[in-house]
Amino acid sequence: MSGPIFDPPRFKASGDTVLLVELGDAIDLAVNEAVRALTERLRWDPPAGLKEVLPAYRSLAVVYDPLAIAPQVLEAHIGDMARHLDTADIPPPRTIEIPVCYGGEFGPDIGFVAAHNGIDEDQVIALHSADSYHIYTIGFAPGFCYLGGLDPRLHTPRLETPRTKVPAGAVGIAESQTGIYPLPSPGGWRLIGRTPLKLFDARRRDPFLYQAGDSLQFVAISPEQYHALQAEEEA
Amino acid sequence: MAILRVAQPGPYATIQDLGRFGYQHMGVPVSGALDLMAHTTANHLVGNPPEHATLEITFFGPDLEVLAPVDIAVTGAEMALTINGAPAPQWETLRVKPGDRIVFGQALSGCRAYLAVSGGFDVPPVMGSRATFVSGAIGGVEGRPLKAGDLLERGAGELLDRPRRLPWRPLYGSEIHLRAVPGPQEECFPEALDTFFSVPYTVTDKSNRMGYRLEGPVLARDSSAPKSIISEPSVHGNVQVPPDGQPIVLMVEQTIGGYTKIATVVTADLFKIAQARPGDQVRFHPVTLQEAHRLHRQWRDYLDLVREAVGAAPV
Predict the structure, then answer these.
(1) Are A52 and B289 a contacting pair at CB < 8 A?
(2) What is the pLDDT of residue B207?
(3) Which domains does chain B have, with CATH numbers?
């Protein structure tokens, strides 16, 4: 693997039961791959006393039972693993298509995003759905993706006053980020569209549609397609 | 089997257990009882294992009508508990019968009480836990706090032959001392670290199951330190410092965050902040990781001692 990967990793205590393992200091694909490779190794071959492994952008939180393992032993174990990381340990990334109905009532801020960037609404749609976005990590809300790679021609500041209610499935832009609200919540992102897919549904066998390391590909759909897909999701 | 009908729900009563593990990296927080000592003890007092679901009651209420004979126990905050209008003790087993009225008054000390019933509250487990996570609308009763008219069921479990009691109880004072391990980003606060560990902070009313917001002298970061970091997993007990310099002790409903964390409260002291009320004074005391692990062992020994004192079987 290449990239600005820490060798050896940096270890930090986050209280008496969590060891933070930092593998880099940047939002970087290679660092993020290393995080996921180490996560897989640790889950496959956990030392006694390891309770959970929680990957994020460039670090992972390792939850342990301090009565079962000393942090020094855990660090040594993880240090060894980090020297032999192999991307073959990472589940093959998938590209998940996310149908989005852009503009109109589905994306009330698309006009603002277009005007802010001196382009028209069709260009906003074309740029936003052109390339896929890498999922660096998931958090904040169930199934909320931190995505990389928003085209600079779409960067737009947040709303001055956040909305008190943003519907589930709303697709928005905040500065250099784009993302989807998995659940209804307050929010200040500029909304450009909405997906009928349920990104998080605890009743499904798999409550989530994707995991970190996968990519999302937005696909523009019509309001008719939106309603048809929504009916399927409800069924 | 329905055992309780909610006549009045109180402001915020939710079904909780030990938490929902394994999904934090998917954005689903651990949730669960904030005061695990009180939750676990309530279960011991009615003969349940620690993982059974209890009702976490915040500040006051509810008013519950008993539908079937069952053993109950109330622990945690002192709540002016009455049964059929007569004062009833906490931290011991109580047998109630159909038609009885269990009423929780105002919290007199602490702010969260726990009600356990024989067999535990039976709600459908969601992703391995019965804990309510309200903003995700999962767990507990339809993913929400109790409301009037709810019928609460219990799981299988024998009533006890004789009542159990804890011969002592924790004190929830208004001056709270929290031991904390510096970090993970203490280097951002070379000067403020002294302030943090010497000056009392006041609990504000903007405190909930996500975090306790404190108010006090601004914790300034080093001029070269970043305002925020690349988001990393949040931990119960992390004390994060947003740009305004006012610390927030993270509880159990946040999975990831990009604010710098000056220190992390030790496991043994998490129940103290869970019982803190607006206006209470919080003082932080630094401990090394080694010391924190010694405290962790003491804490687990203490929980065993509580279980033995109550007369419950080993877990």
Answers:
(1) no
(2) 94
(3) 2-153 (no CATH), 175-300 (2.40.100.10)
